[in-house]
Amino acid sequence: MKVTVELFGPQRERAGQGRLVLELPAGATVADAIRGAGLVDRVDLWVLVDGRRATRDSALADGARLTFFSPVGGG
Amino acid sequence: MLNFLRLSSLADVSEMLWADGPVSALIAGGTDLLVRPERLASARILIDISNLTELGGIGVTPDGDLRIGAAVTHQEIADDDTVRRHAHLLAQACAQVGSVQIRNRGTLGGNLANASPAGDSIPALLCLEARVALVARERGRAVPINEFFVGPAKTVMQVDELIESVRIPLRRGRWVSFFEKAGQRKGMCCSKASVAFLAQRHGDRRLTGVRVALGAVAPTAIRVPAAEAALEGQVLTLERARAAAEACREAARAIDDIRSTRDYRREAVSALLLQGLLPLYDRMRALARPRRRSRRRR
Amino acid sequence: MDKTPSVVGARVKRIDAEDKVAGRTLYPSDKTLPGMLWVEVVRAAHPHARIREIDVKPALEVPGVVRVLTHRDVPGENAFGIQIQDMPVLCFDRVRYLGDAVALVGAETRQAAREGARRVRVDYEVLEPITDPEAAMAPGAVALHPKGNIMHQGHFEKGDLAAGFACCAVIVENDYSVPMIDHAFLETEAGISYYDEHGRLTVDACGQYIYRDQTQIARALGLPLHQVRVMAPIVGGAFGGKDEVTVQIHLALMTFHTQRPCRMVATREESIVSHTKRHPVKMSYKTGADRQGNLLCVQARFVADTGAYASLGGPVLNVMMEHAAGPYRVPNVKVDGYAVYTNNGFSGAFRGFGCTQACVGLESQMDLMAAALRLDPLKFREQNVLHKGDLAGLGYPMTCEVGAGRTVRSAQRGALYRSRRRRAPAKPATPSLKPYLRRGVGVATQMQGLGLGIGIPDYAEVGLDLRPDGTLQLRAGTNEIGQGAYTAYLQILSGRLGVPLSRLSMVGADTALTPDSGTTTASRTIFAVGKAVELAAEKLERVLGERAERAFGWAPGPARLQGDQLAGSGGRRPLRELLGDEELSVQAVFHVPVAEREMGDGLPHRFYSFGTHVAEVEVNTLTGEIAVTAVEAHLDGGKVISRTGFEGQSEGGIAQGIGYALMEEVRLEGGRFLTTNFHTYVIPTSLDVPEDLRTVPVEVREPEGPYGAKGISETAMVGVTPAVLNAIADALGVRFFRLPVRAEDVLAALQEKKT
Ligand SMILES: Cc1cc2nc3c(=O)[nH]c(=O)nc-3n(C[C@H](O)[C@H](O)[C@H](O)COP(=O)(O)OP(=O)(O)OC[C@H]3O[C@@H](n4cnc5c(N)ncnc54)[C@H](O)[C@@H]3O)c2cc1C
After folding, report:
1. Whose CA is nearest to atom 1 of ligand 1?
2. Which residues pair with C13 in a beta bridge?
3. Which CATH code for domain B175-288?
4. Domain segments of chain B: what residues?
5. Mean pLDDT over residues C231-243, rounded?
6. Looking at CA atoms only, how far is residue A49 from chain C in angstroms?
7. Domain at A2-69: CATH code
8. DSSP per-residue codes, chain A
9. Is the C-beta atom of B123 inside 6 A of ligand 1?
10. CB pairs under 8 A between B and C
């Protein structure tokens, strides 16, 4: 299945790009997507799946929109 | 470990002080003591004197003094008719202490014992030529207010002494007075500079018995003889007011600190005296004129 | 036609009012647990020093001391910081400001913990403190961090500045200086920590974003997120000062090592020394307008002293630059900004977030230009304000609703501005007696970005639980810091569902119970969380409709709640028939739309609130004292959700703005704090705030917000300070370029004017 990943801030820097399309096996989880993006998992890597906070074991569906970022903003 | 004691009589307190003076501290309103933990740190016994009837009350003594108990609060003084009649200046000063909460707790005795150069009752008491009645176990004495303070936070009080009351000689005649202070803000504020003024007003518009005292511009509150001399026996004019203000500026031996600067404090005492004298000047001129004209001039 | 339900925009009693007034509300500093340890922090003895050795033995000898922790005891990353993790949890090689934590002492009593903290021996090699940001930026300066002392910089240019200035009839150039100030929240940093019934390391402490704090704790302790729980529903004030982590990691660390519940409550002295401040900034502004009063050029340079660590210094500088040209149409703009490391405390988020400082400079310039052009200050502003579709200062289009012009016109109509030319003080009963008082009226117009801006997702998720009796519980992860947002959320919910407030309740800020609603900062919660509440309400009705369709055969479409009944196409049925004894829960998330193009971290914003403040002052030319005698706030926060909350924000903002203008300043000498309590750090009292306060809502609805609402909390404060400054200039004919303007400064300036 295919999922898209949008990356922000430090995660974008680490991955070297702002958008990725990942090909993952069926039943893949958020943890798999992080590995698939070539990122080292860290506790401050936050993931949204279809706009909502997800945990590492959240299962992904085909076409899921993932967001990788860190809570580095404020205001 | 801090022990808190409330005793039922002045005699018991005196006894305690005599025995344990160095390790005990008196607490009246607590508005100075409780915000200075370093002073509490050295004490082992806290003696609450706020409830002692001997330290309360406002009245006129048989020998013709206004007596104000040491544990009387600033608010009680500000609101009291006897004080307003005989020592209006003190009521004016006490009304400007801190805030409602502070005035409801803080006492006259605490203000004196604390001996801050910025204590607001002190310039007023200097003008009123008050005496501080001190008691110890088996003795008592009355110290003229101008001899009571030795320096910032220092008085002539011995460890076993406490302030019983303040005595103010009654005055005859018509007196005018004001207390003006400048601070960093309007409420809850320690004076950067203050001025107390007292004078007897005569029908011919002359002022006599002029007293001018300054707070927060010297190690202790001070009288300003040169300012008093500039006004004594004279009709108040703007030039004389300015001369007196100038004398205040000269007399101020202010310092730079976290609250203000030496230069400002010198400026401020002169400004505060003028600010107080201007309405007085207007009022006295108005009094001298026939009613109708004075009204038209507002 | 306006179909807004009456509960929205109404003056309603806050849901937390009774408990707070009765003293029943437990703030983090009120909480205790059986068997807990007190934790005290050993803070740096010097603003800049190398640590040679830390000896904890003497502390361990104090009876009652249970544990002393140092950097060796930090199991995860010994670093934290919202944006850059440059701040040690416990210092190991160096201290960079007096608030730096070197060791933690856990003891059975607070006295023992304090005594233990006093006994920890730290051997320092004292280094020269770096206190001047310009010097810190200079080549060859000792670097406080590996990448040098310029923590962040930004440079923006639009148009052609030289050509623009060539067309200007007036050019005004000035330097401004604004001080470091403290948030002066009532409750100092405090909280408790313990293992909850599921074995989660739990921190119940003041803060402004539980989910980010959870991450910062987990990172420092080397724990997975789900083993850390953070809650902070009620906080005793923050204003940005609790945005960065304060006590949370320290609490967690002590509980982690001792397995015991722990408690911390900072003293005021410790609080002032340790938490972030408003950045002191030196600014240079050069601005120009043509003869017709069209603003042509704004050139600004900011040097912000960010202190020892980054925290949110980068985003603060960005917002400062974003708002350098204010709510005005300016074709030629150049902005340069630097945030520089020094040993002067450390600075970060504070109501206004950089906008505050820029507004002081720009709005002073606006008045000076208006005067040079002989234009009315408000007309000059009105002529130049941004409208929807215009390009903002940095060159991006304003795509939100822009109420700037309407706030200016509202101020023009206001009584205070119309009274402006009355020179003598109007108030004293006997004016002739006070010829030394001078009255002045000043204005300032301002805009303020809402939310986090572009750069990271800014979203709010909420949960809504419907019980079979028809009562509802809203769950949101933001904090109640005194601003009243929880009440406003329920007003929105009540409005959307038609369910009275009395049937609604609120659960706030607990990572175990509430979804991630984002930060409690940036004037964003009414807008972002409020919108999520609206979406949740819609979703609930949709889900109810779907279930009623299945259960009762009703026609498709949303169903509505009516007490404990459900109403829809098929009439009314008791809710219990549908739900049985089960609760029905829905979640909804709102993503704040962002600008099209990113220009830097958080830059720019897509949504802004606007405001015009009018202030009246009376200056005593004898003593130099300044009294603010009236303030009118004309604020565009979109549709007002809670009138009481709106006015509360405004009036509090006025007090804070007056403090910034006239009295507040954290003073440092060689990196050491001189003003560490409210005796020396002076903030306004109720007597320093005028009785004559008027807040006029200018409701330009923002369709993206709930009921058209936007946030107001920062706009309510930012314009006040320059309005007061401009009023002083109006009164005296003397302008001040340095805050705060104290009586000392007034007298010195008047004397200079005379000579
Ligand atoms: C917020 C705030 C604002 C303030 N503003 C002002 C102000 O505007 N002007 C001003 O002048 N002061 C001000 N103060 C200081 C203080 O309120 C006054 O000095 C007050 O009069 C102290 O009285 P107390 O009874 O509270 O003293 P306490 O705190 O009870 O005692 C002060 C000291 O006096 C000693 N003492 C008290 N009574 C006696 C006695 N009878 N005999 C011997 N020793 C005694 C105590 O042992 C202690 O050392 C302010 C204080 C605060 C906290």
Report:
1. B188
2. none
3. 3.30.390.50
4. 3-169, 175-288
5. 97
6. 12
7. 3.10.20.30
8. -EEEEEE-HHHHHHHTSSEEEEE--TT-BHHHHHHHTTPPP-TT-EEEETTEE--TT-B--TT-EEEEE------
9. no
10. 72
Q: What is the mean pLDDT of chain C?
A: 96
Instruction: Say if CB C446 and CB C732 are below 8 A apart.
Output: no
Which structural domain, as residue segments, surrounds residue C437? 281-453+598-754
Instruction: Write out pLDDT tens, residues C154-182.
Output: 999 999 999 999 999 999 999 999 999 99
The yes-or-no verdict on residue C431 having pLDDT over 60 is no
pTM of the entire structure? 0.96
pLDDT tens digits for range C316-338? 999 999 999 999 999 999 999 99
C92 in a structural domain: yes
pLDDT at B292: 52
How many CB atoms within 10 Å of residue B69?
22
Are the C-beta atoms of B188 and B102 separated by less than 8 Å? yes
Contacts of A67 in chain C (CB under 8 A): 457
Q: Does the beta-carbon distance from B185 to C688 stay under 8 Å?
A: yes
pLDDT at B297 over 70: no
Residue B157 Cα: closest atom of ligand 1: 43
Whether residue B183 has its Cβ less than 6 Å from ligand 1: no
Answer yes or no: is C11 within a domain.
no
Among all chains, which residue has been given the structure tokens 């008093």?
Answer: B228
Question: Any contact of A with B, at least 3 CB pairs below 8 A?
Answer: no
C208: its two tokens: 């402004």
Rounded to an integer, what distance in angstroms lies between the CA atom of residue B293 and that of residue B275?
Answer: 25
ipTM over 0.95 threshold? yes
CB of B30 sitting under 6 A from ligand 1: yes
For residue C317, give both structure tokens. 């500088």
Query: Could you identify the atom of ligand 1 that is nearest to the CA of residue B97?
Result: 8
Asked whether residue C120 carries a pLDDT value surpassing 70, the answer given is yes
Contact residues, chain B, for C687 at CB < 8 Å: 99, 185-187
- Residue B95 buriedness (CB in 10 A; 0-12 / 13-18 / 19+): middle
Q: Do chains A and C touch (3 or more CB pairs under 8 A)?
A: yes
**Domain spanning B3-169: which CATH class is it, in words?**
alpha beta
Sheet with C437-449, strands from edge to edge, namely C437-449, C608-620, C626-636, C692-697
To 10 degrees, what angle do helices B262-288 and B238-251 make?
160
Three-state SS string over B46-109 comes to EEECCCCHHHCCEEECCCCEEEEECCCEHHHHHHCHHHHHHCHHHHHHHCCCCCHHHHHHCEHH
- Cβ of B73 closer than 6 Å to ligand 1, yes or no, is no
- CA of B186 vs chain C CAs: smallest distance (Å): 6
Q: Do C663 and B187 touch (CB under 8 A)?
A: no
pLDDT of residue B298: 39
Residue B37 has pLDDT above 80, yes or no: no
With a pLDDT cut of 90, the percent of chain B lying above it is: 84
Neighbours of C297 (CB within 10 A): 26
- Which residue, among B207, B249, B254, has the nearest Cα to B228 in the 3D structure? B207
